[in-house]
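Handout, section B. The chain below has 251 residues.
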Amino acid sequence: MPETTTIQDVLKELDRIIEESIENNSRTGLFAYIYRRTTFEIASEISLGNFEDNELLEEFDVVFARLYLDAYEAYKNNQEVSAAWAYAFDQVDKPLTIVQHILLGMNAHINLDLAVAAATVMEGKDIHAIENDFHKVNDILFQITNELQDRLSRVSPLMFLLDLIGKNKDEKIINFSMRKARLQSWNAAKRLWSLDEKRSERAINKIDRVVLFLSRLIKSPTSPTIWLFLKLIHAFETKEVSVVISKLRAD
């Protein structure tokens, strides 16, 4: 894998993963697309100088992305990865809804990797120095939630049924993973940052186990009603990955 040192490098690597997923008809590309879209938005804001410390935010974003990129390459080469990522990658050929595939990736990357990345980048520094920019990213991602929801509805026409599950707008499902999970991850990052290496490793393993538990719930909800809705949604979704990505990308 080429060296990844800038956010533009990250975008190129995500494009490579998306193209590989199209060639292999692998649903790995579903999360990669969403991640690419959100990373592009952050890159645009960095280029405009809209963060308090744009250089530090880019460094943080690259370290964060590397955790996913490294996990992708390691899994592909039968090397050890975190339990959360191993589980997410194991499900790519399973008959889950598009949203479930995306949420499995988000769960591993946001609930685990994000905390690790923040603690790593701010090692030896005051972690609160990045707090405002960390939360500004939340606001930026929230602004594109409706766009992502509209794009997903092109390939999952019955996604509106998710309204009936939670009696809330279906956007909340994506918003929860991008916003609320990031807030939880910030708290985890502060805990990791405050620990020495040995205790930090134990804490990361504990987080990984919790994230794995959440991943299993994403795949197999305990509610029979939710399970039936997801089966119905899946039945009407576009299945060919190349077609899905093409429709998601279309302006």
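Note. The chain has one domain: 7-249. Compare this with the example in section A.
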